[in-house]
Amino acid sequence: xxxxxxxxxxxxxxxxxxxxxxxxxxxxxxxxxxxxxxxxxxxxxxxxxxxxxxxxxxxxxxxxxxxxxxxxxxxxxxxxxxxxxxxxxxxxxxxxxxxxxxxxxxxxxxxxxxxxxxxxxxxxxxxxxxxxxxxxxxxxxxxxxxxxxxxxxxxxxxxxxxxxxxxxxxxxxxxxxxxxxxxxxxxxxxxxxxxxxxxxxxxxxxxxxxxxxxxxxxxxxxxxxxxxxxxxxxxxxxxxxxxxxxxxxxxxxxxxxxxxxxxxxxxxxxxxxxxxxxxxxxxxxxxxxxxxxxxxxxxxxxxxxxxxxxxxxxxxxxxxxxxxxxxxxxxxxxxxxxxxxxxxxxxxxxxxxxxxxxxxxxxxxxxxxxxxxxxxxxxxxxxxxxxxxxxxxx
Length: 394
Known about the structure:
Elements: H1 13-26, E1 32-33, H2 45-56, H3 69-83, E2 92-95, H4 98-109, E3 115-119, H5 124-132, E4 136-140, H6 152-158, E5 163-169, H7 181-194, E6 197-201, H8 221-225, E7 227-232, E8 245-248, H9 251-264, H10 270-282, H11 284-305, E9 312-314, E10 321-325, H12 339-351, E11 353-354, E12 356-357, E13 366-370, H13 375-393
Parallel strand pairs: 1-11, 3-4, 3-5, 5-6, 6-7
Antiparallel strand pairs: 2-8, 7-8, 9-10, 10-13, 12-13
Helix pairs in contact: 2-10, 3-10, 4-5, 4-9, 6-7, 11-13
């Protein structure tokens, strides 16, 4: 009697692992958690003050579906000043988390049977969101030698008459790879040629350690016209539980996304929107300090990984993850269907460390760790990973 769409989706592995860790901790088991993509920082104080003030001022009634005007104006200003993207406030729709911005977009753009291209490895929810709207996810096989980044030449090979959209996550979760301007132009010109939408998920754009970040929509007016920019506050300002994201699109598409949202949730929580407004308006230094902390952690994590024999990894240029290659343990590790899943399960069972299997991202010979936690936690966890790996290969 239930919907057939439930037959084709699988629960989020990252959420499942996080739930398991919470259960173990509730039982008194000391678990080191490197699985969750959640900043260990708190929401900046000035941002919280804006939310508190909104409640004290009794701003709790219905408001505009696409979001508070002052917040959309501030997002518009941010996109122009930081990303060189020209979006008017009425081209922005504020959502209950970036996940909702992604889902709104998929509902507004795709029809049943349309193909949505995903760059492997891809964030765990892209494929399931695509299935939920009855579109078809198509994974693009990429090359480790190029940090698993897409190229225009490779993209051409996957385009069919059913292709409607490319989802491009930059910086990438799980690899931390970042595209240069030239690499983006190469990809975007192929999308222009075939009239394919680009869903540019830029949720990690503030957490960029090396070259200046380039937004897809900043490349040209023609590229902007086929681009849906997705961003939010969870990663840059630690507003994970507050659930606040947004889409920025050409005006007509924004109207349709807003129409969809109006029937689903009306608008995001007003207190959350005021907190987001405060984060953009008053908390740039706080965000910069968080990014610098992540940079230092990245350097510590990779330095420790360099000392672990028989492991390789993709060097992260952004975000707060490392995608680790465990292929060298494959021949000596007993597993059933999934190398990475069984590897993570046994590591959690024997060493009490939670990490995410690469199969969740479409590539089974890898695992993902997060360094959005204390130095003490990830160094101890990596020490245990070293012992685990060498024990397998002994």
